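>> Question from a student workshop board

For tomorrow's exercise we were told to take the sequence and the ligand below, predict the bound structure, and bring the output to class. My setup keeps failing. Could a helper post the expected result so I can at least see what it should look like? The ligand is sulfoquinovose-uridine-C1,5'-diphosphate.
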Amino acid sequence: MSDNVLVLGGDGFCGWPTSLRLSAAGYRVSIVDNLSRRRIDEELGCESLTPIRAIGERVAAWKRVTGRPIDFHPINIATDFQALLDLIEERRPRAIVHFAEQRAAPYSMKSAEKKRYTVENNVPGTHNVLCAIVESGLDIHLVHLGTMGVYGYGTAGIAVPEGYLNVKVDVGPNRQEEFEILYPAHPGSVYHTTKTLDALLFYFYNRNDNVRVTDLHQGIVWGTQTPETILDDDLVNRFDYDGDYGTVLNRFLMQAAVGHPLTIYGTGGQTRAFIHIRDTARCIQLAVENPPAIGERVEIFNQATETHTLLELAHKVATLTGADIRFYSNPRKEQAENTLRIRNRKFLELGLNPTTLDDGLLAEIVEIAERHKNRCDRSKIYPSSTWTREQSLDREGSRTPQGVEHSEDRRAASG
Ligand code: NAD
Ligand code: USQ
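>> Workshop helper replied:
Here is what the output should look like for this input. Compare the format with yours to find the bug.
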C-alpha cells in the first residue's frame, strides 16, 4: 500500500500540525489548500495571534529542519474537481484527510452571503472528494473532520454514542423491532448543518460504492503547538482569537494575557466537549492507521477528551491568571444551559493518552498568549455575528454595542 496521504485543508489550524505529524511518522504528505482561510483573515481585518508563515515558507522550513518533503497544491476542492481527481490519480494515496471546510459557526451566520458561501464551499467540496475517489477507481480511505455539534448538545440523559443509536420501534401489536440509526442530527448553525449534510453523503457513497470512510466528530480544539510545530518558529501553528474564528478556550487564554475580561456569552452554563490540538493530530494518525474494512459501514469516532461548562473553563483560566470574568448577552441561539456526556472509548482503546486542561493550560498561557499578546487587536475580540435578525436589530438598538448584559466583573475567587 502506498504511504502517500493527501491532507485537504493542510494549511489550517488542525491541518498544518496534522500534516507535520503524518510526515514525521513516515507518510509522504501532499497538502491541498486554496488558502481561503488566509483570505478571510484579510477580509475580517485580523490575523492569527501567532505569526504564521506563508505556506511555501512553512514547507521549506519543515524540509530544512527534518529533511522531509511536503508538497503543496493550491486547489479549491469545491470548484476544481478535475485538478483534485488528477492529483488523486497521480498520488494514489492510501488516505485522504479532509479538513477543507469553512469551519466558524459565527462566520456562517454573519449574513446571507456567508451562509451561502459556507454551504456552497463545504457540501460540494465533500461531494467532490467522494466523487473523485469513486472516479479514480482506487481504494482510498477518507478521514473527515466532523464535529460534536452534529448531535446538538442536549443528550436526553444518555452519553452520546459514537455515531449510531439502537432504537426499538413498534411494528405491530405487542411487536417491536430493533434498528441501528445514525444518532439524530441537531445542528445549531449553518456551519454545523453542512457537517450533517456531509454525513449523509458519506452514508450514501459508503453503501453504494464501498468507499471506506471515518468521520471524526471532534469537539472544540484548544492549544496551539505540537511536538512538530515547536521545532522551529517558522513552523508555528495558527491561533485565532477574533469573535468569528477564535474558539472559546483559546479566546479566554488570549483575553487573560491582554487584561481583557473573559467573555462568557449568556450564563456560561453551556457544556461543550474539548480536545487539545496535539491530540487532534494523534487521533488522525490513529484513524489513518485503523481504517474500516471494505464494505464496513462509516466508522464514527467521538474525538474529544473532556467536557466542561464555559463557566468552569473561565474559572480555571481566571484562577491561573487573575483575569476578570464578564457575562455578555449571547449573540447565538443556543440552550442557555445543558449537560453533555459523551462516549470516546474507541480512541482511548487505540492508545490515545489525552492532554488534559490541567496539564496544558499554563504552558499555553506562558508560551503563546503572553509571548504574542502584543499582536492582539482588541477591537476584534467582541463578536460581530448574531444568529437571528432579531438579535442583530436588538444589538443595533442597544446603547452598549458589545451587548454587555451584567456590568459586574466576577473574580475567580468569588466563583
Ligand atoms: P481552518 O479554517 O483553520 O482550516 C481549514 C483549511 O481548509 C484552511 O486552510 C482553508 O484555507 C482550507 N479550505 C477551506 N475551504 C477549502 C476549499 N474549498 N478548497 C481547499 N481548501 C479549503 O479550520 P480548522 O480549525 O483547522 O478546522 C479543520 C476542520 O476541522 C474543519 O472541517 C472543522 O469543521 C473541523 N473542526 C475544527 C474544530 C476546531 O475547534 N478548530 C473542532 C471540530 C471540528
Ligand atoms: N462562547 C463564549 N464566549 C466566547 C466564545 C464562545 O461564551 O468568547 C461560547 C459559545 O456561545 C458556545 C461555546 O462557547 O456556547 C463554544 O463556542 P466556540 O466558538 O468555541 O465553538 P463552536 O462555535 O461550537 O465551534 C468550534 C469550531 C467548529 C467545531 C466546533 C466543535 O469553530 O469548527 O465544529 O467548535 S463543537 O462545538 O463540539 O461542535
